[in-house]
Amino acid sequence: MLVTPFRAVSLAGYASYAGVVTYWWMGRQPAESDAVIADLLVRHMAALVEHERLLMAVARAEDRAANLALEAISGRTISLAVGIVMHQNGLPADDAEHLLRQSAGMTGRDLHQAAAGVVRSGRWEPARQHETAPALSRACGERLV
Q1: Prediction pTM value
Q2: From the centroid of its chain, how far is CA 3?
Q3: What is the secondary structure of 69-129 as a DSSP string?
Q4: Greatest pairwise CA separation for the chain in angstroms
Q5: CATH 1.10.10 boundaries in the chain
Q6: CA–CA distance from 103 to each of 5, 27, 41, 88 (Å)?
Q7: Positive or negative CA dihedral for 119, 125, 131, 137?
Q8: 3-state DSSP call for residue 19?
Q9: 3-58 pLDDT, tens digit each
Q10: By the 8 A CB rule, do 127 and 107 touch?
Q11: CB 102 within 8 A of CB 111
Q12: Domain 75-139, CATH
């Protein structure tokens, strides 16, 4: 019987792990070369585990970077749209953003979609649903009617 203990310290923020790999041979005693091969197998296994953990850490980092980039783009688009609504309706920034949010909700779009529409057209148009116009008019202080 050959016993190969191992301990792996994680470099990717995962928990470290340890264990023992045991080998048996039928009809013979393990040779020195068997011990070398067993050690190589354990090292290879630990390297594979660490490789997979590093790949997962890279994937998480790439997802986070992509989400941050999208948030930056979305934030810029929303800021531009708020500026357009402010200018067009003579509103302070908070009121213009509230109006944009309310309009987005009433049309079933998220804020970024509504903002992108405003930026593309260069102007804000109140939602055209039958019950939307009165609510938007009240939100804007009757300036849109």
Answers
A1: 0.55
A2: 44
A3: HHHHHHHHHHHHHHHHHHHHHT--HHHHHHHHHHHHHHTT--HHHHHHHHHHHTS-----S
A4: 95
A5: 75-139
A6: 64, 81, 62, 15
A7: positive
A8: strand
A9: 999 888 877 778 889 999 999 889 898 899 999 999 999 999 989 998 999 999 99
A10: yes
A11: no
A12: 1.10.10
